[in-house]
Amino acid sequence: MLTYSFEHAGGKPMYEYLYECIRRDILTGRLRAGEKLPSKRMLARNLGISTITVEGAYGQLTAEGYCQAKARKGFFVSDVIGQEGKIPPAEQKTARQPEPEELHREHREWLADFAANSVQPRQFPFTSWTRLLRKVVDGEAEALMERSPGFGALALRQAVADHLWRFRGLSVQPEQIVIGAGTEYLYSLLVQFFGRNKRFCVENPGYDRIRKIYGINGADCVLAGMDEQGVKPEDLTALRAQILHISPSHHFPTGIIMPISRRYELLGWAAAAPDRYIIEDDYDSEFRLAGRPIPTMMGIDVSSRVIYMNTFSKSLTPTIRISYMVLPARLVKPFRQKLGFYSCTVSNFEQYTLARFIQQGCFEKHINRMRTYYRRKREQLLSLLREAERAGQLDIIEHGSGLHFLLRLHIPGSDRAFQQRLAERRVWLKPLADYYEGEPEHCRHVFVLNYSGVSDQTMKPAVRQILACLAE
Asked: What is the pLDDT of residues 172-206, one digit of tens each?
């Protein structure tokens, strides 16, 4: 088993240091051509690091030709000794089943893509947005040409603070709000702020991009298991987690809504040590379609340990790329001292337009309209599926919140085989297992349905294809 010490990694990301160690062993002959490298999980366990870190190192080695990835077999050392100045031999192509993402890319025109997060073009408020953009250009010309503060334009931060008070009951100051071009950018800032020596923890299952972003930024990232109430506190203690990233109001992909008892339990965990914090990802709180919005964890936090994060990607469009986070008051000054030199990554044109969009009530009207639109779309989809549920072909698993729910399909064979058969009918579904690290048996034959980007016209024929595939 490969064994390396990370004591001399310095400021390098852990995946980069691991890549250099393995590369050195290949070039010196310690690892011979054709030798199989340890599995990602096994090497991560041996070194006490995350599988994301190992995945990053193996990915870089494969990209540069130092090793080859063979489907369902693992990673093997390439023959590169004595090949200085030459391109490593290309990996031989072998007949195999396409990987899910390859299969997805093969189909340019889907009848329905139930994995995509998108907004139908006619649902974007182009008229209001264009009108406000013109007013911004006419009336804010001087401000548009000024450099935006690192935390974002004050007008937008004030508008966001007012919105959070009205909609989420959060009393925060504009100084606590940081604007950024997408939550991925904000995640990266938090890694830089807390430091790569801190242990970040994410939910398993969860949104795999979060794990990848923490990993590629060199963070020590571990995964905590979940039960029917959310992330398990005992896992946080066992994993020695310090920064916990969760989506308590509507977990992706399971749809779990964390009860208040578990929320207080996690807040107690965070308050028990000075270096513990919780990142509350409230990514689609606007679209709770039954009852009142779920209160935020930041709103009940008395120890200033919660960092609140949200985005306009779900409520407006993923292409607008404007997200924000709210720092607890105790972190504002140290965050500004450490990262205040950064420029805001969102253009002034978009910041001032969005500020007016919120201030003039256009955002609230848009959310109300979209909530009605998605409620109708959700009921349409559920009514189409309930006949199959009554016939015993599937079970619907939903919590009345957010823009996705789960289906347990009563099918023989593997989830991957069903996914491929359905893809041939131009309908794309992702199994719940794809969002897990590992292969949990309890989620076999469970699929995630994100319906936000599926048009009304294709909803019925898409469900017809799912049912036809079930009947085969």
From this structure: 999 999 999 999 999 999 999 999 999 999 999 99
Measured CA to CA in angstroms, residue 195 lies from 80, 189, 199, 241, 335 at distances of: 36, 10, 9, 14, 12
The answer to whether residues 370 and 308 belong to one domain is no
Distances (CA, A) of 230 to 140, 142, 403: 45, 48, 19
Cis peptide before 205 (omega within 30 of 0): yes
Amino acid code (one letter) for 445: H
247 in the same domain as 211: yes
**Total number of domains in the chain:** 3
Tell me how far apart the alpha carbons of residues 15 and 59 are, in angstroms, rounded to a whole number.
10
Yes or no: say if 447 and 415 are a contact pair by the CB < 8 Å rule: yes
Packing angle of the helix pair 208-216, 51-63 (nearest 10 deg):
70
| CATH code for the domain in which residue 139 is found | 3.40.640.10
- Axis-axis angle for helices 14-27, 51-63 (nearest 10): 50
CATH number at residue 61: 1.10.10.10
Mind listing the pLDDT tens digit for each residue in 290-336?
656 678 999 999 999 999 999 998 888 888 889 999 999 999 999 99
What backbone phi and psi angles, to 5 degrees, belong to 177?
A: -95, 135
Q: Does a structural domain hold residue 1?
A: no
Cα atoms found within 13 Å of the Cα of residue 65, Cβ hemisphere only? 13
Residues 249 and 251: their CA atoms lie apart, in Å, by 6
Question: What token pair was written down for 86?
Answer: 């030459």
Asked whether residue 8 is domain-assigned, the answer is no
Same domain for 163 and 274, yes or no, is: yes
Structure tokens at 220: 């020590």
pTM of the model: 0.74
